[in-house]
Amino acid sequence: MSATYVGAPWVDKYRPKKISDIIGNQEAVQQFVSWLKAWKPGAKPALLHGPPGVGKTVTVEVAAQELGYELIALNASDVRSADAIKRTLGPASHYGTIFGQRGRLIFLDEVDGISTAEDRGGLTAVLELIREARTPIALAANDPWDPKLRPLREACLMIRFNKVRVTQLVPFLRKICEAEGVKADERALRIIADLAEGDVRSAINDLQAVAGGRKVLKPEDVEWLRARNRQYGAFDVLKMLFMARTAKEAKEVINSSLIDYETLLQWVHENLPLQYTDPEELAKAYDALSLADVYLGRAKRKQRWELLRYFFDLMTAGVALARKGKYHFVKYQFPKKILMMSRTKKARELREEAIRIIASKCHLSRRAAKTEILPFLSIMLPTPMGQGIAKWLGLSDDMVKILVHEG
Amino acid sequence: MSFEEMVLWVEKYRPMVLDDIVNQKDVVERLKQFVKSRNIPHLLFVGPPGTGKTTAALCLVHELYGESWRQHTLELNASDERGIQTIRERVKDYARTVSMGEVPFKVIILDECDAMTADAQWSLRRIMEMFWRTTRFALIANYGSKIIEPIQSRCAIFRFSPLSKDDVAGRVRYIAEKEGVKLTDDGLEAIWNVSGGDLRRAINALQAAAALGGVVDEKTVYKVIGRATPKEVREMVEKALSGKFMEAREALYRLIMEYGLSGPDIVRQVHTEVFNLKIPEEAKAEIANMVGEIDHRLVEGANEDIQLSALLAQLVKYGQLLRQKSAA
Q1: Which CATH number describes the domain made up of B9-159?
Q2: Which segments of chain B belong to CATH 3.40.50.300?
Q3: Domain at B232-319: CATH code
Q4: CA angle at residue A364 from B268 to A379, to 5 degrees?
Q5: Would the pLDDT of B119 be above 50?
Q6: Is A367 on the interface with B (CB under 8 A)?
Q7: Is the CB of B228 less than 8 angstroms away from the CB of A379?
Q8: What is the pLDDT of residues B58-78, one digit of tens each?
Q9: ipTM
Q10: What fold, for B165-228?
Q11: Which residues neighbour A306 within 8 Å (Cβ) at sequence distance 6 or greater?
């Protein structure tokens, strides 16, 4: 059905290609461009700071491209111990210029994510790099006021990026809708822009989630995004959970979270495979999570709420202790199931209605109608014979469309 | 063929009178006695799918009440009703009014009784007694052993035997002739092979093959069966075994949300797929064991996408182990 996720993520598809494509923060963008144009050895590196999704990274990328720099980038998911930084960036920063090229731009994204505990000496290495660099260095951070970044702040030119305003976001979202052939209601776009709180990336993601595959976008189509926004705390909870080193630490997550436990179960479920890419870890963690689910089911069905404690144990400690190595930062995701459920809602309802009709016409249970009649019916429906049968059954055109898709 | 008044052949050729039922001679003879005496006990029809149980019940009420059979019959399906309470309510409402006409009771056809829990069946037994004066139950199940003793002992039990190849082939050929479908011998043979003795499946396969136009032969029958068996389950399993967990899980979500398959449906299809996969034989039994555990949990009421994801994660692990083994 058309609701199926097709093609590239829109954040990539509509990523700015030129400096002039960037929306919002024009002043900061210009400040960065001037800095890069004017850079000469001895000049300060630039530290771009501001909330997520406002264009820090993309500014560096397109500016480098447009001004002819080769970009060498490291971000938070890379290993960033002192050694790793020196190994990868050291040579690049020393022997900057290759004949025929303007030079290299070194970019360290998410520097506030360099943890002093795990990336040992990481910050010291960055400072050293800055001191010795003979190429321009750009850094980006969400929160530059972290005390551990003080030495960096002092060494850098600070360029501030602000939240992108709703009035700038809405026209941009409308342009995407036009390109995708979606007729979007102004109010719907406004809701998306409001909820994004200045984060362009999340606005585009939300737009694709609600508008992808549709022809029309109405305010009621985006309502569920509001409910989702209330769950934002989940990201922090997940991080705490997956970082836990002991069973006790993991169990504390339950008390520190305002999210209800069944929602948390969905979040853990969604993000397990992102956190655990090793098959053995993944299998072990899912084993624990599926057992947690069994306890939850027993507690609910038998109203034996004291069983919930075992559910909590397995969902937290069981999942966290499946980790063999050390914790790695990953970008957590909103549960896709909830997203897909909302996008396929109408199709599912039509389908269920069609099955009810078939079941009663053929003296079957709905389950039997689904497994015994539907597979054959969906082959017949596109044929001339099928048109007659659809009429006899009393299936609407929309229902036929959905059933045919599955054949 | 005129497509204007096309219907599903399983319904068009569903017998209206007991004598037209394919085979099941013993059952039919006894039921005809009941019709003659204008009185029936509670009935329990037991037998494999597609052997005529529901048809026999419908023929029975048709012969008892004639054209107005619908006014005297309540059709319920145990697997569709939300628990025994709703069944009780519907039976109570229905049984309240007395049946007019020469037959002093109404018939309640309750299909898929073996889907009911033992607790629900005990309640059903009480309902059957409560409304004994005004209603008779025709209970239908695949497995008699899943029906509790006290219900069995209150019913006249009818066992529907599996249909023979001649029964199925004869009926299919009859329909093909009536509908002007060119059916080859190997086509008929193929239909018998894919039917598993289930006449409904055989007729559906015939009609779907005929709908494609042209002669119904071996090739078209297998084409239809291939299309009617979702490949998605196998693809999901193969993705998992090759280590692509995220893709496998997305396929799972689609099966649940777009295809509307239930967790147990998927688990059982995974089970049949396991034995078709190119993996070492000894692994198959191990995976079957895992699948069985998940099936059990789902029947208990566990969350289907978490349980099935856990199964996929196990398959990913197995896939890697197997690759390591074959590399060594």
Answers
A1: 3.40.50.300
A2: 9-159
A3: 1.20.272.10
A4: 70
A5: yes
A6: yes
A7: yes
A8: 999 999 998 888 888 999 998
A9: 0.81
A10: Helicase, Ruva Protein; domain 3 (1.10.8)
A11: A299
